[in-house]
Amino acid sequence: MALYIFTVSSLQCYQCLINPPPGQYYNTTKRLCSHFDHSDTFVVECPFSTMCMKQEFYLDIQNGVRISAVLRDCAPQKHAYHDIENGRWFPKTEVLEPYSEGCTDIDNDKGERTTPTSFCYCRQNLCNTSPNTSHEGYTDIMGVIMVFNLMKFINSLR
């Protein structure tokens, strides 16, 4: 009698965050984009994604200075919902395919004050590693500082 064990590995992507999420239930400060170095610390499994994502966004501040930041993660493709079968509700999960490979620039095209953003999607393991066009480490740190200061300012208005 032979026993076969099949393992299905999910896609692996780099994950780094611009700022840590609220709460202290897990330690994500090790994955801040300002520390991104292509190491295993930033590698995550993506069981509900078929694509990796890289988001680069820009913030224009005074005197023509532009701050950019890069976020890397699994593409958000998980769709969780409830379905009824035989008179009972059951949780269901699907992986949607709303993205196509490549990059798309989202810019201010309706007169709104929005931040120009570029979204890139790819299907290979760790394919969201490509650097942005500027000095990534420096701009990520500046982005974190800018977000922190903006949040302090918004909170002071309340």
TrEMBL record:
<keyword id="KW-1133">Transmembrane helix</keyword>
<dbReference type="Pfam" id="PF17064">
    <property type="entry name" value="QVR"/>
</dbReference>
<dbReference type="GO" id="GO:0030431">
    <property type="term" value="P:sleep"/>
</dbReference>
<keyword id="KW-0812">Transmembrane</keyword>
<keyword id="KW-0472">Membrane</keyword>
<dbReference type="InterPro" id="IPR031424">
    <property type="entry name" value="QVR-like"/>
</dbReference>
<protein>
    <submittedName>
        <fullName>(African queen) hypothetical protein</fullName>
    </submittedName>
</protein>
<keyword id="KW-0336">GPI-anchor</keyword>
<keyword id="KW-0449">Lipoprotein</keyword>
<dbReference type="GO" id="GO:0032222">
    <property type="term" value="P:regulation of synaptic transmission, cholinergic"/>
</dbReference>
<dbReference type="GO" id="GO:0098552">
    <property type="term" value="C:side of membrane"/>
</dbReference>
<dbReference type="InterPro" id="IPR050975">
    <property type="entry name" value="Sleep_regulator"/>
</dbReference>
<keyword id="KW-0732">Signal</keyword>
<keyword id="KW-0325">Glycoprotein</keyword>
